[in-house]
Design goal:
single chain, outer membrane lipoprotein receptor (LolB), chain A, disordered N terminus, 46% strand, 15-stranded mixed β-sheet, 4 helices, 15 strands, alpha+beta
Length: 272
């Protein structure tokens, strides 16, 4: 059961680990497509202007909202040929509540998850149990520095672990712009679509060589949900000791609609 819960939460949290080390940064892009490569030097005015312009565009695309809801079709596969295919319903009250309902076979609700900035609650309707955890449970589960706000940004498609104070390089191709950054946790390569600066690719590499976690995230099928550009198709490939693939398909996303977040625990459920 714990493994399946890990999958559920990981689906929405995993974006934070995406990619390969900066040593592989150059090989991650086609040399034939590269038109501009700039090693960012704070003392060089032109390189700073280039980066600042892109950062302003990224900030302009940052999704701010009151509420968000969507159905998400999830497909999961790992290198041990374990496969999961299920639907989840996600609702968010900005900076307050993340609510997830996971639907198993035959349309039966299997799990309900309720996350706040300081707690995680999980109802297992199959085992008739409930768990009450600190929000640190997510960190413990996936061994990453995650909080409520990180998960919230991941679900709506905002960039995470993107350290604007430490831009290492800027690359421009005919169709994309890429920025590499580094902080205490990750080295990152963020690739944006050139015409509108939405995220195409996010790659992170764990600074901790012992962990050596890598992953690759692709954002596709952008559409407007209200006035906001949202990626409906996301492909996640993660490698550590094992490899796993996750596909997320967002359907009927909506922003700023009235929502409820029911989380009623039946009296006969046991606390784990």
């Amino acid at each position: 059961m714990r493994f399946f819960i890990a999958v559920i939460i990981f689906v929405f949290v995993a974006s934070i680990y995406s990619c390969r080390s900066s040593k592989k940064l150059q090989s991650a892009m086609s040399k034939n497509d590269t038109t501009i490569t700039v090693l960012v030097n704070p003392a060089v005015t032109d390189s700073v202007k280039l980066v600042n312009t892109v950062l302003q565009k990224i900030e302009g695309n940052y999704i701010r909202f009151t509420t968000f809801s969507s159905k998400v079709k999830v497909k999961y596969q790992d290198n041990k040929q374990r496969n999961y295919d299920f639907n989840a319903f996600v609702r968010i009250q900005s900076d307050s509540v993340i609510w997830v309902s996971v639907i198993a076979a035959l349309g039966i609700e299997a799990f309900r998850v309720y996350i706040t900035p300081d707690s995680v609650k999980i109802i297992d309707k199959l085992d008739k149990t409930v768990q009450y955890r600190s929000v640190n449970y997510i960190r413990e589960l996936i061994k990453l520095p995650v909080d409520f706000y990180t998960v919230q940004d991941i679900i709506v498609g905002n960039p995470v672990y993107f350290d604007t104070s430490n831009i290492l390089s800027y690359r421009e191709t005919e169709n994309s712009i890429s920025l590499s950054t580094s902080d205490r946790f990750f080295k990152q390569l963020l690739t944006l679509r050139k015409n509108d600066f939405v995220i195409m690719h996010s790659k992170l590499d764990d600074v901790d060589l012992v962990q050596n976690r890598t992953a690759d995230f692709t954002y596709e099928d952008y559409t407007y949900a209200g006035s906001r550009l949202l990626s409906l198709e996301r492909k996640i490939s993660v490698s550590e000791k094992t490899r796993l693939e996750i596909n997320l398909n967002f359907k009927q996303p909506e922003f700023n609609k009235p929502l409820s977040f029911p989380f009623n625990v039946p009296r006969n459920y046991k606390v784990k």
